[in-house]
Amino acid sequence: xxxxxxxxxxxTLMLIAVVATASIxxxxxxxxxxxxxLTTFMIGLLFFMHGAKLSREAVVAGFTHWKLHVTxxxxxxxxxxxxxxxxxxxxxxxxxxxxxxxxxxxxVLPSTVQSSIAFTSVARGNVPAAICAASASNLLxxxxxxxxxxxxxxxxxxxxxxxxxxxxxxxxxxxxxFVAGQIARRWIGAWIERNKSWLxxxxxxxxxLVVYVAFSEAVVExxxxxxxxxxxxxxxxxxxxxxxxxxxxxxxxxxxxxxNKEDEITIxxxxxxxxxxxxxxxxxxxxxxxxxxxxxxxxxxFHQLQLMVCAILAQRYGARRxxxxxxxxxxxxx
Length: 334
Fold this sequence. Notes:
Helix content is 81%, strand content 0%. The chain is mostly helical. Helix 4 packs parallel to helix 8, helix 6 crosses helix 15 and helix 7 (114-122) packs antiparallel against helix 13 (261-271). 43% of the residues are buried.
């Protein structure tokens, strides 16, 4: 039986369940400390597995299409943050400063990997370029996202760790496990490829654990008194506006720069999406524990919205390609 289109993806359903659980049964005290230690371990394991999975040869080969990759990286780490800053006067009229900082954090996150590649494939875009662009975005995001958080988020009143502390945490919690995974790839790479479902389990488990611990603390501190339903609706509308603006820019910009349709599709999907999988562990490293719940709300809402919109857009791109090929075949037959 086909899955109804109106239903969110499984990860989103699990996130909703975790947030509901944290709202009713938040972990506190010693239990919270145990969960916090477990999430740190899971995040390290997650980045180790991603390091072991990423093919250095594919990334190096893909960088020959440098113009496309530079375009995607500029959209992800420059244009998106500038949009968030430009909208600040308007956004602060409808959401709290804490939620605005969460939106800024969303704006500096790297692109997704799996879904960007999957949507590019459905849309008949340049899949090899999408693999390289999304992988490069995530790899560079380990360095660029903390830097941009320090420059933009903390500068706009956010509460985070000191710059040196953030760098050290990124190094030993994210970068070192990633490098260790890259080194170990020669021995475990084939096993990783055969057991991708296990990596997906580690990926989702680490996200769910961080969200549960973060929202537990936020609930104890009065999260839902500070964020009523009306503000959640406003946040969803803001996410839709952000997504519409960046998709419009990536579509228009790729055409103005002379990219073909396949490359345009890759730029649109890789340059407009933000990674929940990277955002959740990075938030835990970069922000104080009391701020993580507010920071993650915009990321979670944007995650679901981008999946729904990109699924529709990918099908339309793909259908357009099929119609064009059919028309060409009919013309050749005449």
